[in-house]
Write a structure and sequence with these properties.
Keywords: Membrane, Signal, Transmembrane, Transmembrane helix
Distance between the termini: 26 Å
Order of helices and strands: HHHHHHHHHHHHHHHHH
Largest sheet: none
Number of strands: 0
Strand content: under 5%
Structural class: mainly alpha
Transmembrane segments: 44-65, 77-105, 125-147, 154-173, 179-197, 213-236, 248-269, 281-305, 325-350, 357-375, 381-400
Signal peptide: 1-22
């Protein structure tokens, strides 16, 4: 059932990519900031659809990789999908604040804002490099690995690579040329999803190393969150504006992103061991989709920092009000991100407890950890309560499962 859900995502993702490309108001030649400023609602719709497309590509490509046991292509593709493509989905969200800035200021101020964002080392090394490299490797290596191990026919690799290549070359060209890549990917993924729907290979447990890696990621995730909290600008009980310590703000955003992202392979490892199609399946789906959105939201910290450093207070307030007014983004990305991630991190240990795979207090600790994140992340010291409780909860789940 889990892998069939992944096949649904595999078929739906390129369709959303097609719709996102068609909705992009900045296709063709011209200044990006002026083009999106003329149609901010279209730019926000494009960003939301594009982000959702890449979020769904993650479980979709993982469904293809799940039964593969190769020693090179499949493992590299698995890492690229989980840590590269998921990061790339977050990179897309930079456009939300950029659209608000472009709709508010003139060209000179927008250029200063854009230059400031481009100068952040943590964003370049921690987001752009792994995101762009992972994006390419995920789309290239996954179909090759699936063909190499004979899960699908050679035709799928040809179509998938052709579709990605066309999108890579013509994504910002005028319609209809820009639509050719997503259209080819849509056909290829739909056909392969239908053909694999009843394939017994999808019932294979897959290589054991993925669960071992997932277990380590589950322990590393709260540690990364703790580092993210400790590097926040401010004091033990107070968070200061990012511009007071730009280097710390950049590091904090990266480690918070990394922490939420590391939970994804960990949650997948835990829920794979929970039998049945009930709470375990729902918990895994809610947590994974929520976390794939939520880790990407941390990139907004860099945009906030750039706004603080380049715009005066009155303009900053106008930009913030404009960005907050994008209801489509709030309802379809921001709200599902926080609700899905935090609720999912409670539901997963709860499902493990119900299956007899964790002590009862693990679910309680996870719930208290989420509450602490919402109420106590007010400074470096108070913010450590949530990572500590989440670490205790998930370490208990792993300990029981290792018996």
């Amino acid at each position: 059932m889990r892998r069939r859900a992944g096949l649904v995502c595999l078929a739906a993702a390129p369709v959303l990519l097609l719709l996102a490309t068609a909705a992009d108001p900045a296709l063709g030649s011209g200044d990006w900031d002026r083009m999106v400023a003329a149609s901010p609602d279209g730019a926000v719709l494009h960003t939301v659809l594009l982000h959702w497309a890449y979020v769904l590509f993650v479980p979709g490509l993982l469904a293809l990789l799940s039964p593969l046991r190769g020693r090179v292509l499949a493992p590299v593709a698995w890492v690229a999908v989980l840590f590269g493509l998921a990061t790339f989905a977050g990179l897309v969200l930079t456009d939300i604040t950029a659209v608000a800035v472009a709709s508010t200021v003139d060209d000179a101020f927008f250029d200063a804002f854009d230059a400031r964002v481009s100068a952040y080392t943590w964003m370049s090394v921690g987001w752009q490099l792994p995101g762009l490299v992972g994006w390419v490797l995920a789309f290239v290596l996954t179909p090759l690995a699936a063909v190499r191990e004979r899960l699908v026919g050679w035709w799928y690799a040809v179509l998938a690579l052709a579709g990605f290549g066309l999108y890579f070359l013509f994504a910002i060209s005028p319609v209809p040329l820009s639509l050719t890549g997503p259209a080819v990917l849509s056909v290829a993924n739909l056909v392969v999803a239908v053909r694999l729907w009843g394939n017994p290979a999808l019932a294979s447990p897959g290589p054991a190393w993925r669960d071992r890696v997932g277990a380590w990621c589950l322990l590393a995730a709260p540690v990364a969150l703790a580092v993210g909290v400790l590097t926040m600008p401010g004091t033990a009980t107070r968070i200061d504006p990012f511009s007071t310590a730009p280097g710390l703000a950049g590091a904090s955003a990266f480690f918070l992103h990394l922490g939420w992202l590391l939970f994804v392979p960990g949650v997948l490892a835990v829920t794979r061991s929970i039998p049945g199609r009930g709470l375990g399946l729902v918990a895994g789906g809610v947590a994974v989709l929520g976390l794939l959105h939520w880790n990407g939201m941390m990139i907004g910290d860099y945009l906030v920092l750039a706004v603080e450093q380049t715009l005066d207070p009155a303009v900053r307030a106008e930009v913030t009000a404009t960005a907050d007014g994008y209801a489509l983004f709030g309802l379809t990305v921001a709200a599902p991100a926080m609700i899905g991630a935090l609720l999912g991190l409670i539901l997963v240990p709860l499902a493990a407890v119900r299956a007899g795979l964790a002590p009862w207090w693990a679910a309680v600790a996870a719930g208290l950890g989420v509450v602490a994140f919402l109420l106590l992340t007010t400074g470096r010291l108070t913010g450590l309560v949530a990572p500590f409780l989440l670490l205790a909860a998930y370490a208990a789940v792993l300990r029981y499962q290792s018996r």
